[in-house]
Write a structure and sequence with these properties.
single chain; globular; 9 helices; mainly alpha
């Protein structure tokens, strides 16, 4: 009802005598906070109001959804940072760079192995998906892995073994094979295109420190604002009497 995914019996909300299922606790909470936005109106009830960006309730719902995404991804993020930290400490950067150079120097085949398939192989081996692969991608960039391989690595989270097992259980064998073939070819094509585009652009130096500082200040301000809105929204819902109006 909220995100379009299949519901689960573990996350339900009873509304007007009907039980609605949701894929996660976050979607169930979003529905419970404003059922009229998602469920069809009962006979005699007014139509659901339009979403207004100037409304505080709208931004509180945005903050609640953002916080739900963070809670859902926190394990992946922690695993990604830990994996990147261990890789930084245990993998000799010089030796790793020499291996990459040796593989990449092989004509034609080296490009395919290094630029396209290396990222997929690392993604399958690390078991890190969602946003957790971004810290690892940062380590790979510092170690000398080309941008194209990093792109295929980030897209390769669709090919980790637990997801492949889900595909095999959910779809017929031929359809699963088609999915895997499309995922592999799509990730490799994205890496190759991005590598070609970046090489075609004018090469400039790294951005100045002032840009990084400005971007970090803006990001922290956005995070703090969403945190305050989420806290105020929860406090408002917990103190509002049943049937009360905002």
């Amino acid at each position: 009802m909220v995100c379009g995914m299949t519901g689960s019996p573990e996350h339900t909300v009873n509304q007007h005598g009907r039980v609605y299922r949701f894929c996660s606790a976050g979607c169930a909470q979003s529905f419970a906070a404003s059922p009229a936005r998602y469920a069809p109106a009962a006979p005699g009830e007014p139509e659901p109001p339009r979403v207004r960006l100037a409304s505080l309730d709208t931004w509180q719902q945005i903050a609640a959804r953002a916080w739900g995404d963070v809670r859902m991804l926190r394990t992946d993020l922690a695993a990604g940072y830990l994996l990147a930290g261990f890789a930084e400490a245990l993998i000799p950067a010089r030796a790793f760079g020499q291996v990459l150079h040796a593989v990449g120097s092989v004509p034609v085949l080296g490009y395919v192995l290094l630029l396209l398939l290396l990222g997929l192989a690392i993604a399958v081996a690390t078991f890190v998906c969602s946003m957790g692969n971004v810290p690892v991608a940062r380590f790979l960039k510092a170690a000398g892995v080309p941008l194209g391989a990093n792109i295929t690595y980030i897209y390769g989270d669709l090919l980790i073994l637990p997801l492949v097992r889900i595909y095999r259980r959910s779809f017929p064998p031929r359809l699963t094979a088609a999915f895997l073939a499309l995922f592999i070819s799509g990730a490799c094509a994205a890496g190759a295109v991005m590598e070609a585009v970046m090489h075609a652009l004018p090469q400039e130096g790294p951005p100045p420190m002032s840009f990084d500082l400005f971007a970090n200040v803006i990001a922290l301000a956005v995070i703090a604002t969403l945190g305050v809105l989420y806290w105020r929204g929860r406090r408002h819902h917990s103190t509002r009497p049943p049937g009360g109006r905002r």
